[in-house]
Specification:
By secondary structure, the chain is α+β, with helices and mostly antiparallel strands. The protein is built from 9 helices and 22 strands. A hairpin with a 3-residue loop joins strand 4 and strand 5. The chain is elongated.
Length: about 500
């Protein structure tokens, strides 16, 4: 028994490590970012509370028959509000000492006297406390999984006018108490619908698993529930690219896990080497890391040099001497990304095959040389797209057949490097120009971005701004049947006609 316990203790660290998949992409939202969300969220809450539907209030006291209907929120004053992180997975949103101005229609019948008019009322000392529990759903998308809500109204005043004003003042306490109860009962259902339906529809706009181009896609599914501290909210995304032809293909992540320590900006996005490696691996698996130049696409000065270099071989191929040249550059293994504090680089191994292509005849290979290149990568953010600009840093060609053949190829080193810089690199950068979207909701964008390199990962620190309001995005993606139906303390009744009183 003791031996088994010791073995379990020895295996425990390994089990914990293997069960924790490191993210390829990580996003941290700080308290400063939450303050911006609070401003937009408060406007959204005001709009939702203004649409509260309150049931009619009707009944009788002795010979007095009354009906209160058509309750409408006229104004809200939410002066004291707070949105803050609450460990472990929660966001807490509080509104204190708010006021709500109402107007509703009154009908009163006392014996043969009938009175109709409107009443202005004010609910003061409104306190609302909500806690939003955040979690990942089955698809790996961030969702509001649950909401707890408590609402109370400290005081309510009503101003009566009309011929039976004294009667209304007599019944005022009863009517105001009833209206305060009905109103307080509708605040939380309204906010629950706003959170679980409307805000979740906005979170549905965050890209989770989508296509980047015709060849590859990106998996931004959450690996685990969000981690919330008193100052930050951290989201761990898979951050793995995949070839569209094999969407279920997985690439193990052995890279360093990004660690975000900064809190000065509103948001930080970290990308590990795995993020970039998986992109290049997906392109390699898709079979698109090949570039072919033939005929007029081969630079003239390079063609002259190649024909002079391989003159003996070409001369023996008469009458195919004047056949066009074909250069095929093919990556031989998935490129690897290396991120250091000094910069980001990409190592590429490839083959360059040089052939003659006689019209109507099979191609004749003149040479097949190995190439090793190191590219410098400038990573930057444009809008919500992460883009990479590549530049050739080092280049070497050699023959795998013999050192003597490698020596013969030395004269091609400079012109082939020029070919890569002036012809091949622009083609590659054009293909990567579109970039890849970062998982943010629609209507939310980055500003003042700063990219910082670390050992094994890089971070993008930025501030946020809303290019679209929450309401605009929600209305765009509003579910077909999202009209809230709130429970009430009693069934709603239509306004009472004088003939029915």
């Amino acid at each position: 028994m003791a031996a088994g316990s010791c073995l379990l203790l020895l295996l425990l660290p390994w089990l914990v490590t293997t069960s924790h998949s490191p993210p390829g992409c990580k996003i941290r939202i700080t308290s400063k970012g939450l303050d911006l969300v609070k401003q937009e969220g408060l406007r959204f809450v005001e709009q939702e509370l203004q649409n509260i539907t309150v049931s009619d209030l009707h009944g009788k006291e002795g010979q007095f028959h009354y009906n209160i209907s058509q309750v409408k929120v006229m104004d809200l004053q939410l002066a004291f509000s707070d949105l803050h992180f609450q460990p472990q997975q929660d966001l807490a949103f509080n509104i204190n000492n708010a006021s709500i101005s109402l107007r509703f229609r009154r009908q009163l019948l006392y014996w043969f006297f009938y009175d109709i008019g409107s009443i202005n009322a004010s609910a003061d000392g409104v306190h609302i406390h909500t806690v939003l529990q955040l979690a990942k759903d089955r698809a790996g998308r961030l969702k509001i999984a649950n909401i707890t809500c408590n609402a109370s109204i400290a005081r309510m005043h009503a101003g009566f006018s009309g011929t039976l004003r004294k009667v209304y003042e007599f019944l005022g306490t009863f009517i105001v108490t009833g209206m305060r109860f009905l109103l307080s009962q509708q605040i939380c259902p309204s906010l629950e619908h706003a959170s679980l339906v409307l805000l979740n529809s906005m979170l549905d706009t965050v890209p989770v698993r989508n296509y980047v181009d015709d060849h590859i896609g990106i998996d931004y599914s959450l690996l685990r529930d969000p981690s919330v501290s008193t100052d930050t909210l951290d989201l761990d995304f898979k951050g793995m690219f995949f070839p569209r032809a094999r969407e279920n293909q997985e690439l193990e992540n052995h890279a360093v896990e990004p660690v975000i320590k900064e809190t000065e900006r509103m948001v930080y996005v970290a990308f590990s080497e795995y993020f970039f490696d998986s992109a290049m691996h997906a392109y390699f698996q898709a079979g698109v890391l090949t570039i072919e130049l033939q005929g007029e696409k081969v630079p003239k000065d390079l063609e002259v040099l190649l024909r002079a270099t391989f003159f003996g071989t070409i001369f023996m191929l008469s009458p195919a001497v004047d056949a066009p040249l074909r250069l095929v550059l093919q990556v031989s293994a998935p490129p690897r990304c290396i991120i250091k504090p000094s910069g980001t680089s990409v190592s590429v191994s490839a083959f360059l095959n040089i052939s003659l292509v006689p019209p109507g005849q099979p191609a004749v290979q003149l040479s097949s040389m190995a190439m090793e290149t190191k590219l410098s990568a400038k990573v930057f953010l444009q809008g919500k797209a992460l883009r990479v600009q590549l530049d050739l840093r080092r280049f070497r060609i050699y023959s795998k057949q013999s050192a003597l053949e490698s020596l013969a190829l030395f004269s091609l080193q400079a012109p082939l490097k020029t070919l890569l810089q002036l012809t091949i690199m622009p083609i590659i950068n054009e293909r990567t120009k579109k970039g890849v979207q970062i998982p943010l909701p629609e209507g939310m964008d980055f500003t003042r971005e700063v990219v910082t390199n670390h050992a094994g990962f890089l971070t993008v620190g930025a501030d946020l701004h809303f290019s679209k309001g929450l309401r605009e995005v929600i209305e765009k993606y509003r579910p077909a049947s999202s009209t809230p139906t709130y429970p009430s303390s009693q069934p709603a009744a239509p306004s009472v006609d004088p003939d029915q009183l």
